[in-house]
Amino acid sequence: MFEAIRGRKVLITGASGGIGASMALLFAEHGAILGLHYNSGKQAAGLLARDVEKLGAQVSLFQADLVEESGEAMVDAFIDRFGGIDILVNNAGAVYGFKDFLELDDKSWERTFRLNAQTPFFIARRAFSHMKKNGGGRIINISSVAAKYGGSEKSIHYGAAKAALEAETIGMARAGAKYGILINAIRGGFIDTSFHQKLGSKNIEERVKLIPLKRAGKPEDLARMVLFLASEAGDFITGEILAVTGGD
Fold it and tell me: Considering the entire predicted model, what is its pTM?
C-alpha cells in the first residue's frame, strides 16, 4: 500500500522534533526523498538528517523563520534541489502568548496566526502552483483539536488559527481536485510532545483524563495518518479534516 511513497519528493515543515521528526523517519523508511524544515533547531535537524540517511533516504535541510517569512522561497529552494515536489506537509505550529485571553496582546495574536494559518497558506499555494503543472500532488495540513473546542482560555487565538487552516484546506481542495492535487488536514489531539510541557504535569494529567482512550497520543499516531494520506490509500480522499484524537 505504501510502495507509491518510494521516490516521492516530500517537504515537511517543523521537522526538527516531535511529530515532524516522526513523520520524517516514517517517510524515510518507505523510500521518500525528504526536505526537512527547521527554524532554530539546527542541531536537532542535523541529527535527524543523519538518522534519515541511515535509513537509505536522500535528505536536505531547509532553514526558515516561518513567522517572519512567507515560506515560498523555501518551497522554491526545495524544488531547485530535487527537481519538483510531490507531497507537502504543513506541520510547523506553535502558540505565542499562552495567557488568559483578556491579557492577550496584538503581537501574540499576529504571530500565532502567521505561523499556523497565514504561512501554511502561502507555502501550500506555491507548492500547488508547481503541482498543477506537473500532474498533481498531495498537501497535508496539520491542524489541532483546538479548532474543534476553540482552545482553552489561554489559547483561543491558537484554536482560531487552526480553524482558519482547516477552512483553507477545504477551499484549496476544491480548487485542486481538477488538477489531481489532493488536500486534507489532520486534526491532531493531545499528542505527547514538548509542546505541552509548559502546561505543567497536573494540567497534563487532567487533560489526558478527558480523552476517551485514556492516553495521550504519540507522534507516530499522527505520522501514520500522514503517510496514509500521502500513499495510494489516500487516492480518493480530499477536502477532509481527519481526527487523530483518541476519540476526543
Answer: 0.95
